[in-house]
TrEMBL record:
Its cofactor is Mg(2+). It catalyses: a myo-inositol phosphate + H2O = myo-inositol + phosphate. One of its GO terms (biological process) is signal transduction. It is an enzyme of class 3 (hydrolase). Belongs to the inositol monophosphatase superfamily. InterPro entries: IMPase (IPR033942), Inositol_monoP_metal-BS (IPR020583), Inositol_monoPase_Li-sen (IPR020552), Inositol_monophosphatase-like (IPR000760), Inositol_monophosphatase_CS (IPR020550). Mg(2+) 2 binds at D90, D93. It comes from Euphydryas editha (Edith's checkerspot). Mg(2+) 1 binds at E70, D219. Its EC number is 3.1.3.25. Keywords: Hydrolase, Magnesium, Metal-binding. Pathway: Polyol metabolism; myo-inositol biosynthesis; myo-inositol from D-glucose 6-phosphate: step 2/2. This is Inositol-1-monophosphatase.
Length: 273
């Protein structure tokens, strides 16, 4: 299986790099967009074209593989995860950034087999940052191996989180309560506007933890394996095991930090993917 994963990964990587050119063309912003589940959940033609490029390219070579793509699901496709090799795609993670020309958006592509992330690619073509990982082979930024930080306590941690793309009142209240709590308890807080890039920052050791309620499988499939291969952990924000379809994520540089943070967080349970 390892050899097969290597082969799938190389094919996917070439497609991701090609699709990245579509994003580069709009590095200064993409002013045409539509809204989806809320007035801040947005999609552009580029999101759709990137997803189409990846699905067409991969399914031409691997017709038996399955796909869960953000824009296909928005258009009515089923979000169904089986034991089969499944490519989980966020064509532009950080669409709001992409629209504004804020250079923190990326393609996030995860390969899940037997319901476990075994390979991940997070590519921000605008600043040429390519985060990759394959099961058992470490995590990389471009050609350099990366590792999570040594931070083990919330009081010493730089923690990222997001306000998200839903206007649900209970969820927004939870975001504000957690922000208020972390401003007093953590060393600092950050939000880069892309779930995948927040996870990549934990893998890089640039931040120490990231959590969010309301993300989808496509936001976290690649980040999960990249964080774990960099030596970090990915759990449910209440402290239990990570569930890719639960729409809840907490990743951190260590189990100690993850569990301390989980105990402090106000929880929110969105409807599952
Ligand atoms: C969004 C993320 C954002 C996060 C949202 C959503 P999209 O993805 O990038 O950081 O807060 O939950 O997942 O819509 O830009 O692909």
């Amino acid at each position: 299986m390892t050899d097969a994963i290597d082969e799938y990964f190389e094919v996917a990587l070439e497609l991701v790099k090609t699709a990245g050119n579509l994003i580069i063309e709009f590095r200064n912003g993409c002013k045409e967009f539509e809204s989806k589940s809320s007035d801040i959940d947005l999609v552009t033609e580029i999101d759709k074209k990137v997803e189409e490029t990846l699905i067409k390219g991969l399914s031409a070579i691997y017709p038996e593989h399955k796909f869960i793509g953000e824009e296909s699901v928005a258009d009515g496709a089923k979000c169904e995860l089986t034991e089969e090799p499944t490519w989980i795609i966020d064509p532009v993670d950080g669409t709001l950034n992409f629209i504004h020309g804020y250079p923190s958006s990326c393609i996030s592509l995860g390969l899940v087999i037997n319901k476990e992330s075994v390979a991940g690619i997070i590519y921000n073509p605008i600043v040429n940052q390519l985060f990759t990982a394959k099961k058992g082979k470490g995590a990389f930024l471009n050609d350099r191996q990366i590792h999570v930080s040594q931070v083990k306590e919330v009081r010493n941690a730089l923690i990222s989180f997001e306000a998200g793309t839903s206007r649900d009142e209970e969820r927004q209240r939870t975001v504000l309560e957690n922000f208020k709590m972390l401003v007093t308890k953590a060393q600092g807080v950050r939000a880069v506007g892309s779930a995948a890039l927040n996870m990549a920052m934990v893998a890089l050791g640039g931040s120490d933890a990231y959590f969010e309620f309301g993300i989808h499988a496509w936001d976290v499939a690649a980040g999960d394996i990249i964080v774990r291969e960099a030596g970090g952990v990915c759990i449910d924000p209440a402290g239990g095991p990570f569930d890719i379809l639960s729409r809840r994520v907490l990743c951190a540089s260590s189990e100690e930090l993850a569990q301390e943070l989980a105990k402090m967080l106000h929880q929110y349970y969105p409807e599952r993917d």
